Amino acid sequence: MTRISRHKLKDRVYEKMFELLFQVVTSSREKHEFNALLQDLFSPTERIMIAKRVVLLYLLLQHIDYKVICNVLKVSSATVSKFNIIFENQKNTVSILERILKYDRFKLFFVEFMNDLFPPGTYGINWANAWQRKLTIEKTKNDGML
User: Fold this and answer.
1) What local confidence, expressed as pLDDT, does residue 146 receive?
2) Which of 80, 112, 113, 141 is most buried by a 10 A CB count?
3) Would you state the torsion angle of the CA atoms of residues 64, 70, 76, 81, taken in this order, to the nearest 10 degrees?
4) Residue 24 lies in a domain
5) H helices present in the chain, as ranges
6) Exposed e or buried b per residue across 92-108, where buried means at least 16 C-beta atoms within 10 angstroms of its C-beta
7) Distance of CA 135 to the CA centre of its chain
8) What pLDDT shows up at residue 145?
9) CB neighbours of 26 closer than 8 A, spacing ≥ 6?
10) Which of 16, 22, 52 is nearest to 37 (CA)?
11) What is the distance between the alpha carbons of residues 120 and 138, in angstroms, rounded to a whole number?
């Protein structure tokens, strides 16, 4: 658990503080800039914790089984239950994750389409790539992540 001062800040200071945080986080245009920013701002444990929370909410949105989520993310079932309750009350995060989910479903559709056009074992195709696509599709359907 992180520690913060027990002394409360004024509302004006909170607003300015989060406005500056927003400016800093949204100023990065590329993935490597964003990763460097996260490494500067957060400890390795905090980065993992934040990433696991986002992925946990994403997997809950996909209706992935609790046991699979626990196994993939190495979290307890109590953590998944807690975030499922939190998930029901979060509208902003849900809308962002739903946009990402639509994009991922679109990608999965095309991977499945390519696999249907060029299935493993068909003459004239690269069998290794076809089997890899098939395994990717099966894993995505089980784990929820492409």
Assistant:
1) 53
2) 80
3) 0
4) no
5) 11-26, 31-41, 44-61, 66-73, 77-89, 92-117, 127-143
6) ebbeebeeeeeebeeee
7) 21
8) 63
9) none
10) 22
11) 14
